[in-house]
Write a structure and sequence with these properties.
The protein is mainly beta.
C-alpha cells in the first residue's frame, strides 16, 4: 500500500512563509495574479501588488527578479498558468543573500519541475473597459528536450487611461485650486527568452534576454482658479503634452556548478542592463484676470526634454555549502551604474505676449556614477525538531559621483555599512509555529529622483529632483505566529532620514514646488492578521487585517509639528464554486482603508468592491473570466498637509473603476516548466526603472 502525505496549505521556513498553491482553491483557476489574491499578507489591487505592512513588492520567478512593474508586471504574470505553480514564498524580511536595498518585501513564485521531452503554450487576450477601452494580449511557449530547455514570452498592452489630479493650496492671502485632467495613451510590449543547457549532471549553463518598450503620449489640461477674499482673482488655462519612449534591454549569463554530492553549489551571474528614455514635456497657457474676452492676459510657455541613458553592469557569485552541523551560504557582488542625462529646459514665466517658438537651448549634462561592492555570509542550523536559527551579515561599500558643472553640482560620497539579519524559529507542534526576526536595511533613491531636472506644469506648480538625496536606513523587527491557516504578524519599523516627494509652498510667489527631500524619521508599530478558511465546501474565504500606529518627525526648512496616528485596512476575498465540477466560479472581493496618516499627510478613507465570474471549459484548458473592480468608484486618493503655513489638499483619481473580459487557452503538456536562473543585478535595475 502506498502512503502519501499532503502538504499543508501554509508552511513556515526559517526566513519565509510558504503558500502551497497545489493545495489551494486557485490551483486550476487561471493565472499567477489570481493566486496572489489569496496568499496571506499579499494584496493585489488594479495594477499593483503589495505586501501588507511593507508597501511595494519585488517579485521573483524561481529566484529571478522580474524587472517589471505596474501593468507590465501584471501582464507578464497573467501569462503564467496557475497549474504550473508549485508554491509562492512570502519573504517579509529578506536574508543576507539578497541585496540590503529597500524596505519592500519579496515574493518568490516557484514553478513545478519540468517534464522531460515536453512542451506547452498559452495564448491570452483581455479587454478592459475603464473610462476608455484598453487591451492586453500575451503568449508564451516552453519546451524541454533532453538537456535543453527554452522559455519565451511576449506581451502587448494598449491602454487609454483618464486620470484626474486636484491640488488646492490655501495661502495666507490667496487660494489656488488646480484641476488637472490627464489622458494617457500607452502602447507597450514585453519580450523575454531564457535558455539553459545541462552540460553534465553537475554543470548547467544558461542565458536570458529581456526587453520592455513603451510609447506613451500624455495630454494634460490643468485649469487653475485663484481667489482672494472669496472672490475670483484670475484663471489659468494650460495645455500640456508629455511624450515618452522608454526602452529597456537586459542580458544575463549564468552558470551553476554542483561541487559535491551533498548539496554544495557554486552559482555565477553576469548581468548587463541598458535603459534609455527621451522624456519630453511641453506646456503653454494663458492667465486671465477674468472671463471677459477683452481682459488683458498674461501668457506662459515651457519646454523640458531629458535624454536619459542607464548602463548597469554586475557580477555575482553565490556558494551554498551545507556542512554536517550547519548550513552556510556566502558570496559577493559588484555592481557599476553609469547614468547620463542631457537636460534641455525653457520657461518663460508670465509674459505680456505669447511665445510662438521655443528657442534652441543648450543641453545641460548631468552624470551620476555608482559603485557597490558587497560580500555576505549566512549560517542556518536546526536544534532538534523544534528549534532553528539563522544569522547573516552583509557588508556593502557604496561610492557615488554626481556631476553637472552647469547646475553647480559636484558630489562625491563613499560609505560602508554592515547589515545584519537574524531569525529564530520554534515549532510548538505540527500546527503551530512561532518566528522572530530582525533586519537592518538601506533605502537608496531611485535614479530618476536624483536627476536635478525641473519642469513646470503651470507658472505656480513645478517638480524637481535632488542630486543630494541621501539613503535612509531601516530597522525591522517581526514576530509571527502560524496556527493552522491563521497568520499573525507583529512588526516594528524604524526608518531614519527617509526621503520622499513633498510639496513646498513659497508664500512670496504663491507657488508650490514638489521636490524630493530627506525629511522624515518614522516609526511604525503594527499587527496584521491573515485567515484562510472554507466554511462550506463550495466557499473559500481569505481575510486580511492590518492595524498600525505611525509616528513621524520632520526636518524641513520651516518647523513642522510631529504627526502620529493609526492606520488600518481590512479586506476579504471570496470564491464560490457554482457547480459541482468546479468549472464555474464566482467571486466577491472588498477592501476598506480607514482614514490615517502617511508621513506629513493626513489621508482620507478609501474602499473598493469587485465581482468576478469565471468559466473553465474544454477540460479547463479554456478560461473565460469576467470581472469588475472599484464598482462604486471609492478608491479616490485624498490627503492633506500643512507646510510652511500653507494647507495643501490633494485629490487624485486613477481610473480604477474597470470591467474585464479575459480569454485564455493553453495547450501542450501542462507540467512543463523551464528552469529560471537568479539574476545578479536585481536591486540596481529596480532603481533604474527596469
Amino acid at each position: 500500500m502506498l502512503i502519501t502525505s499532503k502538504k499543508k496549505l501554509i508552511e513556515r521556513k526559517i526566513d519565509r512563509l510558504i503558500f502551497n498553491v497545489e493545495n489551494s482553491s486557485k490551483s486550476s483557476q487561471g493565472d499567477v495574479v489570481e493566486v496572489l489574491k489569496i496568499v496571506p499578507g499579499i494584496r493585489v489591487e488594479n495594477d499593483a501588488i503589495n505586501m501588507i505592512g511593507k508597501g511595494n513588492m519585488r517579485v521573483m520567478l524561481n529566484e529571478q527578479i522580474l524587472q517589471l512593474s505596474g501593468v507590465d508586471l501584471i501582464n507578464f504574470l497573467q501569462s503564467i498558468d496557475s497549474e504550473t505553480i508549485k508554491s509562492i514564498e512570502v519573504i517579509s524580511n529578506p536574508p543576507a543573500r539578497y541585496e540590503a536595498e529597500g524596505n519592500s518585501g519579496l515574493i518568490n513564485i516557484i514553478l513545478k519541475k519540468p517534464k522531460s521531452d515536453s512542451w506547452n503554450a498559452q495564448l491570452k487576450g483581455t479587454y478592459i473597459q475603464r473610462t476608455k477601452a484598453n487591451y492586453r494580449s500575451s503568449a508564451n511557449f516552453n519546451i524541454n528536450k533532453n538537456k535543453f530547455t527554452f522559455s519565451g514570452r511576449l506581451g502587448f498592452i494598449n491602454h487609454q487611461i483618464a486620470l484626474q489630479e486636484s491640488l488646492k493650496s490655501t495661502y495666507p492671502e490667496e487660494t489656488s485650486a488646480t484641476l488637472t485632467p490627464i489622458d494617457i495613451d500607452l502602447e507597450g510590449s514585453v519580450a523575454s527568452a531564457e535558455i539553459s543547457y545541462e552540460i553534465d549532471e553537475n554543470w548547467q549553463l544558461g542565458a536570458q534576454y529581456y526587453f520592455n518598450g513603451t510609447t506613451v503620449d500624455i495630454q494634460t489640461s490643468p485649469r487653475t482658479t485663484i481667489t482672494q477674499n472669496n472672490s475670483v482673482n484670475s484663471f489659468i488655462r494650460i495645455e500640456g503634452s508629455e511624450p515618452q519612449h522608454p526602452r529597456v534591454h537586459k542580458f544575463n549569463l549564468n552558470s551553476n556548478f554542483n561541487l559535491d554530492s551533498v548539496g554544495k553549489k557554486l552559482i555565477l551571474n553576469l548581468d548587463y542592463l541598458y535603459n534609455t528614455n527621451e522624456d519630453k514635456k511641453y506646456y503653454q497657457g494663458i492667465e486671465s484676470p477674468s472671463l471677459d474676452e477683452n481682459a488683458e492676459n498674461s501668457y506662459f510657455r515651457s519646454f523640458n526634454k531629458t535624454n536619459n541613458n542607464y548602463d548597469i553592469y554586475s557580477a555575482k557569485v553565490d556558494v551554498e555549502s551545507p556542512l554536517q552541523w550547519i548550513d552556510l551560504d556566502f558570496g559577493a557582488k559588484y555592481a557599476y551604474s553609469d547614468i547620463s542625462s542631457d537636460i534641455e529646459s525653457f520657461n518663460t514665466g508670465y509674459t505680456s505676449n505669447p511665445t510662438d517658438d521655443i528657442p534652441d537651448v543648450p543641453a545641460i549634462p548631468f552624470n551620476y556614477e555608482e559603485n557597490i561592492a558587497a560580500a555576505y555570509i549566512s549560517a542556518n542550523r536546526n536544534f532538534g525538531e523544534r528549534w532553528s536559527a539563522q544569522f547573516g551579515l552583509r557588508l556593502e561599500n557604496t561610492a557615488i559621483s554626481a556631476l553637472s558643472p552647469n547646475l553647480d553640482i559636484n558630489r562625491e560620497d563613499n560609505y560602508t555599512n554592515l547589515f545584519s539579519t537574524f531569525y529564530i524559529n520554534y515549532n510548538l507542534d505540527k500546527e503551530t509555529n512561532f518566528s522572530l526576526n530582525y533586519s537592518r536595511r538601506i533605502e537608496r533613491p531611485n535614479f530618476r529622483d536624483l536627476n536635478p531636472n525641473t519642469y513646470y506644469r503651470n507658472p505656480l506648480i513645478f517638480y524637481s529632483g535632488n542630486a543630494y538625496l541621501d539613503p535612509s536606513f531601516i530597522h525591522n523587527i517581526e514576530f509571527s505566529v502560524l496556527h493552522h491557516d491563521f497568520v499573525t504578524r507583529l512588526y516594528f519599523t524604524r526608518e531614519n532620514n527617509a526621503f520622499g516627494e513633498v510639496p513646498i509652498a513659497n508664500t512670496s510667489t504663491n507657488s508650490t514646488g514638489f521636490s524630493y527631500k530627506n525629511y522624515i524619521d518614522r516609526t511604525l508599530l503594527g499587527i496584521s492578521e491573515s485567515f484562510t478558511w472554507s466554511p462550506i465546501h463550495w466557499w473559500t474565504n481569505v481575510n486580511n487585517l492590518d492595524l498600525n500606529y505611525a509616528n513621524s518627525t520632520f526636518n524641513l526648512e520651516q518647523p513642522q509639528a510631529d504627526r502620529s496616528g493609526f492606520n488600518s485596512r481590512i479586506s476579504t476575498n471570496n470564491d464560490f464554486n457554482i457547480n459541482s465540477e468546479k468549472t464555474i466560479i464566482g467571486g466577491i472581493n472588498y477592501w476598506y482603508q480607514f482614514a490615517g496618516v502617511d508621513g506629513i499627510f493626513e489621508t482620507k478613507a478609501q474602499s473598493s468592491l469587485g465581482l468576478s465570474l469565471q468559466f473553465l471549459l474544454l477540460d479547463k484548458d479554456l478560461n473565460i473570466s469576467l470581472r469588475g473592480e472599484d464598482l462604486f468608484r471609492n478608491s479616490i486618493e485624498r490627503k492633506t498637509a500643512k507646510i510652511n503655513g500653507v494647507t495643501q489638499h490633494i485629490r487624485n483619481f486613477y481610473d480604477t473603476r474597470q470591467f474585464w473580459l479575459s480569454i485564455s487557452y493553453k495547450f501542450g503538456n501542462d507540467n512543463l516548466k523551464v528552469r529560471s536562473q537568479k539574476s545578479g543585478n536585481t536591486d540596481t535595475e529596480r532603481r533604474a526603472g527596469g
